[in-house]
């Protein structure tokens, strides 16, 4: 949820930065580009005037830019300035009052220097004027500050301007150096305000983005968590659970609708499968049992004859078929989540003590050493019958595959995190790591065990019992004796929480 909130805030910040960048470009950079193009056009126009009428016409054009030609008739205030202080007073007034976008000029010949940016410090130097981009034939862009030395207002001190440095030429000879500029103080101030607004705007966007993303992601996470709980409950066998809907017809609501339809279909299939399984169990178990009984009875009547041995073998095959059939049905019912409601608080120590007492003589008969380490105080929620069946399968597998002279160890203890570990360890051939998940499937038998009796359902049943108890069934290397891997099969049961009922959902 935090990652979604952070991503939303970042996207909001990027959007705000992009919007302010677009505003800055359209309001500032575009306008500055227009100013630069106006300066370039004006220098070109002054060059054309020089080519047509000489330097005097250029000076007149500059004077026209400095002092409006309608000075005497339409601007009496400028006439009064002219009468009092001459053209210099009028030039200062025009420069100050018409600063924004008004032309700023500087012209220098061998004998004359004129313009309205005279005496502006380092700007008016031969080095600045002579600089160009293509060996004296092009233009150079300059940014400079200018002021009105006779003004008392701070608004007319160190105003920013952008200009073009060029040359008036007669053929290949440079006749005069010229600067044409425009006041860009207003544009620059607007750009400053936009740039200064960017950090607080991004900070505000980040805060609002985090808040809004947190609310959105929290709502989304709550709905996803509802789906997770649904999946957990369905996996546990509670097929009556359904995804909550708000009937908003949005994507999540449609997903919930489709999930519910799918679960309805699965529930119908499971009910049909259970009905078919019960029918098969009812219809076939009795005939198979009768078949086995008749074969055994016929074998007894024949006495000690070869025909009797054949009938006994057939009866054993029928018994094995019944056992396999019962195992498949039991696994199917466990995977469907049946009997979970029968889990009760259980102390596994007496159960494992009985199993140790039961299998110790069997191990001695098989030439195996049997040991047990069964701890106290390990209460769990369990079905005693199923847990006993699972541990019995592990011990019988160990007896079956461990060669004579080997050893088997049964253990019950608590782990560091409070869970309960039941393990059966041997020093038999073991199971390679790459096959340990595969052997949990039904009817899977490794090549080296094909010659031994069995149906490949023992470990599948253990895995189903572990899943019913919400436990882990794992396998690892056991007693490593020379050329044998050994096998340690673990059933790791969750710790029992006081006050939690057996059928209470987690």
TrEMBL record:
Subcellular location: Membrane
Alphabetical UniProt keywords: Kinase, Membrane, Phosphoprotein, Transferase, Transmembrane, Transmembrane helix, Two-component regulatory system
Enzyme class: transferase
E.C. designation(s): 2.7.13.3
InterPro entries listed in its UniProt record: HAMP_dom, HATPase_C_sf, HATPase_dom, His_kinase_dom, HisK_dim/P_dom, HisK_dim/P_sf, Sig_transdc_His_kin-like_C, TCS_sensor_his_kinase
Reaction catalyzed: ATP + protein L-histidine = ADP + protein N-phospho-L-histidine
PROSITE patterns hit by this protein: HAMP, HIS_KIN
Residue span(s) of domain Histidine kinase: 279-497
Single GO molecular function: phosphorelay sensor kinase activity
Name of the protein in its database record: histidine kinase
Annotated HAMP domain residues: 218-271
GO cellular component assignments: plasma membrane
Primary site of residence: membrane
């Amino acid at each position: 949820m935090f990652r979604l909130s952070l991503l939303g805030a970042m996207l909001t910040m990027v959007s705000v930065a992009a919007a302010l960048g677009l505003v800055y470009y359209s309001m500032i950079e575009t306008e500055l580009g227009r100013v630069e193009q106006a300066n370039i056009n004006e220098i070109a126009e002054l060059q054309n005037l020089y080519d047509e009428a000489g330097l005097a016409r250029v000076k007149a054009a500059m004077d026209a830019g400095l002092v409006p030609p309608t000075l005497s008739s339409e601007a009496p205030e400028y006439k009064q300035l002219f009468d009092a202080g001459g053209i210099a007073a009028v030039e200062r007034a025009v420069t100050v009052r018409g600063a924004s976008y008004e032309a700023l000029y500087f012209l220098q010949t061998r004998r004359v220097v004129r313009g309205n940016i005279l005496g502006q410090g380092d700007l008016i130097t031969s080095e600045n004027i002579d600089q160009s981009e293509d060996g004296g034939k092009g233009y150079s862009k300059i940014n400079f500050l200018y002021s009105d030395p006779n003004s008392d207002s701070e608004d007319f001190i160190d105003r920013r301007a952008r200009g073009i440095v060029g040359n008036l030429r007669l053929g290949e000879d440079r006749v005069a150096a010229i600067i044409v500029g425009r006041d860009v103080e207003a544009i620059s101030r607007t750009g400053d305000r936009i740039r200064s607004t960017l950090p607080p705007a991004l900070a505000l966007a980040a805060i609002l983005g985090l808040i809004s993303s947190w609310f959105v992601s929290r709502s989304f996470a709550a709905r996803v968590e509802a789906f997770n709980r649904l999946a957990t409950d369905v996996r546990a066998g509670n097929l009556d659970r359904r995804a909550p809907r708000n009937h908003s017809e949005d994507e999540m609501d449609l997903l919930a609708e489709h999930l519910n339809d799918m679960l309805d279909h699965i529930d119908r299939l499971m009910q049909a499968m259970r009905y078919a399984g019960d029918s098969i169990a009812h219809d076939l178990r009795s005939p198979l049992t009768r078949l086995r009984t008749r074969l055994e009875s016929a074998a007894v009547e024949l006495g000690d004859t070869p025909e009797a041995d054949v009938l006994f073998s057939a009866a054993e095959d029928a018994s094995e078929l019944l056992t396999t059939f019962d195992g498949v049905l039991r696994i199917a019912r466990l995977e469907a989540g049946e009997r979970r409601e029968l889990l009760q608080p259980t102390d596994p120590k007496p159960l494992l003590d009985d199993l140790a007492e039961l299998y110790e003589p069997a191990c001695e008969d098989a030439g195996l050493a049997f040991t047990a380490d069964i701890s106290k105080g390990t209460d769990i929620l369990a079905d005693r019958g199923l847990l006993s069946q699972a541990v019995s399968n592990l011990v019988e597998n160990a007896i079956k595959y461990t060669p004579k002279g080997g050893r088997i160890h049964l253990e019950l203890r608590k782990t560091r995190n409070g869970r309960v570990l039941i393990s059966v360890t041997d020093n038999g051939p073991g199971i390679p790591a790459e096959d340990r998940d595969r052997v949990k499937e039904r009817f899977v038998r490794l090549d080296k065990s094909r010659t031994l009796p069995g149906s490949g359902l023992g470990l599948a049943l253990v895995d189903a019992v572990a899943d019913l108890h919400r436990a882990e069934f794992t396998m690892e290397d056991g007693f490593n004796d020379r050329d044998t891997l050994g096998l340690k099969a673990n059933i790791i049961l969750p710790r029992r929480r006081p006050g939690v009922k057996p059928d209470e959902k987690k």
